[in-house]
Every structure is written in structure tokens, then in C-alpha cells.
Design a protein that fits this description.
The protein is an alpha+beta fold. About 30% of the residues lie in helices and about 25% in strands. Bound molecules: glycyl-adenosine-5'-phosphate (GAP).
């Protein structure tokens, strides 16, 4: 089996309706993507799998859906207004703009592949002198690096100017802050005791300097985040428990552990709120020669300490005494009735993108197989729970009224229990190939005999084996095979 690269998935996605370039008829919009009929089903199934796992299967997590646009103070006190930025440089010759750290990583990667090594010296990483512009290739003249805040700005209400500071608001760059500012609401209404978590799933927006690689880095994406609150002394243990739990959960999505690596962020890489972050890297770039560069971030699990609850609190008890917040009305500390202590809980945060998960799921499920006619077929070996379509009902002869009527009836009968489609737009070989390529676990074929013996042929996507099944027991048979 050949490992697919992202380009293979881009082409499959466009061809079969998983993901399309956004605003395509107007020439597209850099790094924006729309999810088609199969993509929206796959994304919904991933989100459902995650929600079922964290909110329903555990008994220590509540769900939440907070606003995308919050009071600007949320981002002021969270630190995002001042620190949520990337270093940016412009090419003086062609004016192309790049993220300085990514440019450097790619350049050193390329040089290492050629057997040359370049040492980074000082803060400016010698970009001005060493790195040619990837767009024009001619210049090594870069502007000084400067921070570029990644939050998308907008204005609220009928203001006269887009720059009116009173109306300034942001689209959230992470779902997490909506959880922190609702900590007390959820605590009071759910009557939870530590440890407990709050889960949220939804869109986030970042004005990335260099988005790219299909849906890997985009300006609009979806996150699935848990903020899990605990006593400070329990945080290291619970952090490790979440790392183990995510290893297991990714396996349930069909993602192979061979394609996952853990990466411990260095002190310089840690976000302003984090004490320790372990990233899970996925082999998104199998075509790269250097094995280390094949991997990039799928998710991160951070120990955010008590940073967020403190900064949003009326009376923070910070040792530095500087984090005074005069704008909030609440103190987000926690009172433990058993020990009679009041303190700010620590928070462990597993944060994963829906879009990167979908990409990893597609890459891991992709297989090419040669049939007995020597033709190469694509099979998406998706877990049945994630497959956009569970069953396809195919009539063997589309001009035979009895067969077509029975096939359409079977489609209607199966649909309430499992997502089913009916397709008669080709010969049976072509119809099977089409369903294999979108990951449909089972095809049900209605033939002439079905009208006599009240049975159909069920074909398995992964083995291509066929079995005769009685129509009366079809729903039960497929339900058990799908679960
Ligand atoms: N609340 C913590 C947080 O937002 P992050 O590492 O910046 O942490 C978490 O983001 C996850 O969100 C990433 O691991 C990735 O899966 C996804 N993500 C972040 N930026 C993204 C982007 N520009 N495009 C697609 N997914 C992104």
C-alpha cells in the first residue's frame, strides 16, 4: 500500500465531494475550503465521536456552546491582544509576506536535505542574509521581523468608522476562553465538584500569515476543546491521563499509532499560559525525506495552570500582585467544602482541530488495491462509525421495474437506521468502485433472484467478499456489522 500525500487527498476530496476550494467560481479565497456532501458527513461523524466520548461516555464533563464574538475584555485579559502574534517578515523585492519561523524551518530543512547545514545565530536567525524569497527566489532582503496579531478584527453595531475602538471586537481565535468566562456559570448550575471538565466544539479564526497545505492550516477552522479543572497538585497526573486517553481515542478513529508522535514543547515554544504542552504530531507529509519533517501538529495537550481563571477574576491572588482586573464582575476561584480551602483550579486542556483530524482520518484510511483485472482501485477504509454513507443499495438491472422498486424500498427501509443511498447510474463494477472510494462499508445488490428468494447480496468494502442475506433480517444484519 502506498502512503498518500496531501495532494492525493486534495484530488480525491474534490473529485468525490469531500472538500472544495471556497469561492471557487470567483477564483477562490486563499486557503479557504468548503465541505461538500461527504465532507460534512465525515466532519459531523468525527464531532459526534468526540462529543460522545468526552461528554457522554465519561461522567465528569459538561458541554457548552459559547459565542464566537465575546466582549473585547475577554481577549484583553486572556493575553491574546498583546501576545497572540506571529513574527512576520516581508520580501523587499516582491513584497511577499512570510512567517519568519516557518520560513527559517523550511529553509534549514531544504539545506539539510542537500547536506548543508546553517547555524541560526542570534534572534534574527540570519533570515536577512541567508534565506532566498520562496516567491521571487532572487532576493535575500527581508524587512525586520515584527509581531502580527492573528485575531480577526470586526466592529459591533452601526459605527461610523471601522477603526472605532469602542466598537472593536474579535472573532475568537480559540474556543477555550468561552469556557473560562463561563466557569462559574457551569459550576453553579451543574453543582460539580473538582475534578471536572467543560467541553466545547466550534469555529475559531486566525489571520494566519502563511496558511496552506489544504485544510491543515486555514484561517477559519473548528476546534474540539476540553478544559479540565483540578486541584493544582493533581494537574501533572491528570495531564498524563489525558495524553494516554487521546492516544487511545485516536486509535478508535482508525488513526495508526505508527503515524503519531509525541512532542514536548520547549520553554521557548510554550504559549504564554502554559506550564507544559505535549503536542501530538501526525505524519501529514509522508513524502518528505527527513522523517522528522514528515510530522506536524494534530493536537496539543497543555497544562494551563490557573492562568486563565486568575486573569479573568476580580481579585486575583497573583504573587506578583500585578494581574489586577478592574473590568470583571466575578472571582473565578473555587471553594472546596471538604478542606475549607479557596483556590484557583489548575486546568488541563486537550485541544484538537476537526479539520486536521478529518485530514488524518482520510490519509490513514486511504488504500490503493489492484483488482483481478489489473485495475488500481481506491478504498477508503474508514471506521463504519465515521463513514459518510453506511450502505449503498444498487439494482443489478436499472431497467427492470421489479428490481428497481425493491431496491428503492430497501433504501427507504434502511434509511431510518443507517445513512443509505440508492445508485443506478452505472454498471455494478463501477458502482462498487465508487462506493469503495468514499468509504461505504457495505453495498447491497438487488438482482433477479431477489424477486424470487427475498434475499440480496451484501458486499464488504474491505474484503470484497459477498454474502447472501435475507431481506427480512437485513436491518439487523447490517446494524450488527456496522457497530
Ligand atoms: N486553546 C488552545 C489552542 O488553541 P492551538 O495549539 O493553538 O491551541 C489547537 O490549537 C488545535 O487547533 C491545533 O492542534 C490544531 O489541530 C487546530 N488548529 C490551530 N490552528 C489551526 C489552523 N490555522 N488551521 C487548522 N487547524 C488549526
Amino acid at each position: 500500500m502506498s502512503a498518500p500525500n496531501i495532494e492525493t487527498i486534495v484530488s480525491l476530496s474534490k473529485r468525490r465531494g469531500f472538500v472544495y476550494p471556497a469561492s471557487d467560481i470567483y477564483g477562490g479565497l486563499g486557503s479557504s475550503w468548503d465541505y461538500g456532501p461527504l465532507g460534512v458527513e465525515l466532519a459531523n461523524n468525527i464531532k459526534k465521536a468526540w462529543w460522545d466520548w468526552v461528554v457522554y461516555e465519561r461522567d465528569d464533563i459538561e458541554g457548552l456552546d459559547s459565542s464566537i464574538i465575546q466582549n473585547r475584555n475577554v481577549w484583553k485579559y486572556s493575553g491574546h491582544e498583546t501576545t497572540f502574534s506571529d513574527p512576520m517578515v516581508d520580501c523587499r523585492a516582491c513584497k511577499s509576506r512570510y512567517r519568519e519561523d516557518k520560513l527559517w524551518d523550511e529553509f534549514t530543512g531544504a539545506k539539510e536535505a542537500e547536506g548543508q547545514y546553517i547555524l541560526a545565530v542570534g534572534e534574527n536567525r540570519l533570515i536577512k542574509f541567508e534565506v532566498p524569497c520562496p516567491t521571487c527566489g532572487k532576493s535575500k532582503e527581508w524587512t525586520d521581523s515584527r509581531p502580527f496579531n492573528l485575531m480577526f478584527r470586526t466592529t459591533i453595531g452601526a459605527v461610523s468608522s471601522d477603526d472605532d475602538p469602542m466598537a472593536l471586537a474579535y472573532l475568537r481565535p480559540e474556543t477555550a476562553q468561552g469556557i473560562f468566562v463561563n466557569f462559574k456559570n457551569v459550576l453553579d448550575t451543574s453543582r460539580r465538584k473538582l475534578p471536572f471538565g467543560i467541553a466545547q466544539l466550534g469555529k475559531a479564526f486566525r489571520n494566519e500569515v502563511t496558511p496552506g497545505n489544504f485544510i491543515f492550516r486555514t484561517r477559519e477552522f473548528e476546534q474540539m476543546e476540553v478544559e479540565y479543572f483540578c486541584r493544582p497538585e493533581d494537574a501533572p497526573r491528570i495531564h498524563q491521563e489525558w495524553i494516554d486517553a487521546y492516544d487511545a481515542w485516536l486509535g478508535t478513529l482508525g488513526i495508526s499509532s505508527d503515524n503519531i508522535k509525541h512532542y514536548e514543547q520547549t520553554a521557548a515554544e510554550l504559549a504564554h499560559y502554559s506550564d507544559r504542552t505535549v503536542d501530538f504530531l501526525y505524519r501529514f507529509f509522508p513524502e518528505r525525506e527527513d522523517e522528522e519533517k514528515q510530522f506536524d501538529e494534530l493536537l496539543g495537550i497543555a497544562n494551563r495552570t490557573d492562568y486563565d481563571l486568575r486573569v479573568h477574576s476580580k481579585k486575583p491572588e497573583g504573587e506578583d500582585g500585578k494581574r489586577i482586573n478592574p473590568d470583571t464582575t466575578e472571582d473565578l476561584s473555587y471553594f472546596d467544602p471538604q478542606t475549607n480551602e479557596r483556590f484557583y483550579p489548575y486546568c488541563i486542556e486537550p485541544s484538537i482541530g476537526v479539520n486536521r483530524t478529518l485530514l488524518a482520518v482520510l490519509m490513514d484510511a486511504y488504500e490503493e488495491r489492484t483488482n483481478d483485472k489489473g485495475e488500481v482501485r481506491v478504498i477508503l477504509r474508514l471506521k463504519p462509525s465515521l463513514a459518510p454513507i453506511k450502505v449503498a443499495v444498487l439494482p443489478l438491472a436499472k431497467n427492470n421495474e421489479g428490481i428497481v422498486t425493491l431496491a428503492k424500498k430497501l433504501k427507504r427501509d434502511l434509511q431510518p437506521s443507517m445513512r443509505t443511498v440508492y445508485d443506478d447510474t452505472g454498471g455494478i463494477g463501477k458502482l462498487y468502485a465508487r462506493q469503495d472510494e468514499v468509504g461505504t462499508p457495505f453495498c447491497v445488490t438487488v438482482d433477479h433472484e431477489s424477486l424470487e428468494d427475498n434475499a440480496v447480496t451484501v458486499r464488504d468494502r474491505d474484503t470484497w467478499e459477498q454474502e447472501r442475506v435475507s431481506i427480512d433480517g437485513l436491518v439487523a444484519y447490517l446494524s450488527s456489522r456496522l457497530s
